[in-house]
Amino acid sequence: MNTATSRKAGTARGPVPAESASERKFRKLGLCRPADFIVHLPLRYEDETRITPVGQARTGRHAVLEGEIIHSEVQHRPRRQLLAVLEDGSGRITLRWLHVYPGQHERVRAGRRLRARGEVRAGFGGPEIVHPLISEAGTELPRTLTPIYPTTQGLSQPSLRKAIDEALARADLDDTLPPQILQAYDLAPFEASLRMLHRPTPDVSLDDLAGHRHPAWRRIKFDELLAQQLALAAARAARLAQRARALVPGDDLLDRLRASLPFALTAAQQRAIDQIAADLAQGHPMHRLLQGDVGSGKTIVAACAAAQAISAGAQVAIMAPTEILAEQHLRKFSEWLEPLGVQVAWLTGTLSAAARRAALAAIASGEARLAVGTQALIQDKVVFRDLGLVITDEQHRFGVGQRLDLNRKGEAEGVQPHQLSMSATPIPRTLAMAFFADMEVSVIDELPPGRTPVLTKLFADTRRDEILTRIGDEVRAGRQAYWVCPLVEESEALQLQTAVDTWERLRGMLPDLRVGLMHGRLPAQDKAEVMGAFRDGRIDLLVSTTVIEVGVDVPNATLMVIEHAERFGLAQLHQLRGRVGRGAGESACVLLYQPPLSGVARERLRAMYETSDGFEIARRDLAQRGPGELLGIRQSGQALLRFADLSADEDLLEQAREAAARLAADFPKHALAHQRRWMQGRAQYLRS
Ligand code: ADP
Ligand code: MG
Fold first, then answer.
1. Residues 205 and 326 in one domain
2. Probe residue for ligand 1, chosen from 327, 553, 554 as the CB with the greatest number of ligand atoms within 8 Å
3. Band of pLDDT at residue 15, cut at 50, 70 and 90
4. Residue 122 in contact with residue 101, Cβ under 8 Å?
5. Exposed, middle or buried by CB within 10 Å (0-12, 13-18, 19+), for 29?
6. Residue with the nearest Cα to atom 20 of ligand 1?
7. Does ligand 1 have an atom closer than 6 angstroms to the CB of 614?
8. 299 lines ligand 1 (CB under 6 A)
């Protein structure tokens, strides 16, 4: 609420004056109000506060040098350029300009005393500076380090510096935090921190500044995290103020479902079911994220939630990101719930017109208590009679908008449906705290008993023959295997071609095996047919693209081969590996790679080899790729946190969260001012 109002207040200024070219460039950097400029902080600094003796100028470092030009000339080979040699008694350095303008040679005539600034590099004939900035020797040096700001094309550092200086003079730099909070969290004052970061004095360690370790940085990062926590708390408060139908079981459906299961629930599953049950019985909408590693058994937890809602007289929708996964849910939910008298409707984009009409009618009349499907569930035509619970599987695969759309179908007269999201991409605790603080989280942190860990092996591509033998052995022992085709991100057509080629090649090499092919472009019916054949054991080896990545559950498959594993992301590899090790049999995952490996790829494959713990993998993924990718919000194009680093600032985040609660409770005015300073136009990315 607060953020929405402050955003409006920021833009509603009456008639809008035409935007100048520099304003447009500033806006590109998100710089509109003085408050935006003051927190546009340097990426790094250059020390121009002292003169470096020429003999001590280090390669790769920015330096300010002063001395006499002892020689200069315009060369014509290999190309026209201006050279000058500067000497100061400690050494000599070449100054080089690749374009020669009129009058330029005159400025660097032999005999002149000059100051030159720039990055020193190793040239052919010793150290040199290309395109140095030249000024008169002996003039006053700046007293502070020179900030280098993030910028955009056509916007120079001096004009940014000037604009920021102006903003620093004009903007409100009052501390948004009361002394009690500053003291409790040992925070440096805001204004001093800000001035220090924009114009640091030369006694500050450049390394501390660059590493964001200086107390001034700590204050800024704290403020940023705090603003985010306040926004999330506000979103949460808004949700608690909404109404939802309290879903209290009306019969013994849930008990009958549990009694019918062929296995006992794990303690972690039971705990999640209890947490969800308590939420559903509340009069405000649940927003709960169910997290559990691949294979931890989230589906049955969702089924129990569905049973409770149905038992309370409400309808339930389950949306999955792929047709294969939706179809699998349909099978499982039907198997579990239909014998107990629950009618299930099926809705995807590829149904026949008649089947579609029938499904829509059953959903609209309320006859179908449960609707399973893909994104097709959120189309306008779909009307529920009484949607009380919305479940999304692999929630990070959906855009925020899609989830909201499904949710809207349950909105009626100010009443919202409950929401359960499931994710097998375990989100590290810091990330969950930073981005899902307005959701409750249930974690299934144990696997069903009897699973043997998947053995992971790294094989260079050259050892492919050994793998083919291994597949043969596995199949003779009555098992099945997956072969995941190399990822071709550039083109879907090429990806398809690769899959077909791989399939044909493997069929040729393994003539005794029944080899199936699965890819995203197969018609839905064929997909279902292939998955069915694999599940029933009529296919021994399933060659597939990553369409099998999420959720697919065929316990008899015990071998997973991933070709060109170095092209896949860590989370993706983990998901793929999770397709095996689902039954009691020993399973293996072979990562085939094409040497030589890049450093990053090596790290990734090493992580896969070293751990099978989804949370550990997610932590490493966060460190490697940053939060945007992990949360599936990279398309937003905007960094979610500019200064804080979730993999390094976990403690700070913890403190910010605590402080947000204190601030909201005891200092609401400060909280509002703080959000206003930090959250301009950014709040939308945090709502989900
Ligand atoms: P995921 O969390 O990856 O969605 P699933 O819900 O697909 O996992 O469950 C993986 C497999 O484990 C399924 O075959 C499921 O029937 C089985 N399973 C789930 N819970 C248990 C349990 N408590 N004991 C034994 N098997 C279970
Ligand atoms: Mg699943």
1. no
2. 553
3. low
4. no
5. middle
6. 297
7. no
8. yes
CA distances from 262 to 257, 311, 336, 638 (A): 10, 22, 10, 47
The rounded Å distance from CA 490 to ligand 2 centre is: 28
- CATH number, domain of 265, equals 3.40.50.300
Give the model confidence (pLDDT) of 446-472 as tens digits: 888 877 789 999 999 889 889 999 999
Count the domains in the chain.
4
- The predicted pLDDT at position 29 comes to 83
Q: Which residues contact 618 (CB under 8 A, 6 or more apart)?
A: 425, 426, 427, 428, 431, 571, 630
Atom of ligand 1 nearest to the CA of 296: 2
Report whether residue 582 contacts ligand 1, using a CB cutoff of 6 Å: yes
- Quick check: CB of 68 below 6 Å from ligand 1? no
Q: Which ligand 1 atom lies nearest to the CA of residue 265?
A: 23
**Torsions phi, psi of 409, nearest 5?**
-65, -20
C-alpha 164 – ligand 2 centre gap (Å): 50
Q: Are residues 129 and 69 in the same domain?
A: yes
pLDDT tens digit sequence for 188-233: 999 999 999 999 988 888 888 888 889 999 999 999 999 888 888 8
Whether the model clears a pTM of 0.85, i.e. scores above it, the answer is no
Whether 616 is in a domain gets the answer no
For residue 547, give its domain range. 454-611
What is residue 634's predicted lDDT score, i.e. its pLDDT? Answer: 37
Which of 381, 411, 444 finishes a domain? 444
Predicted local confidence at residue 464, as pLDDT? 87
| pLDDT of 6 above 50 | no
Residue 291 pairs in a beta bridge with 423, 443
Same domain flag for 27 and 152 = yes
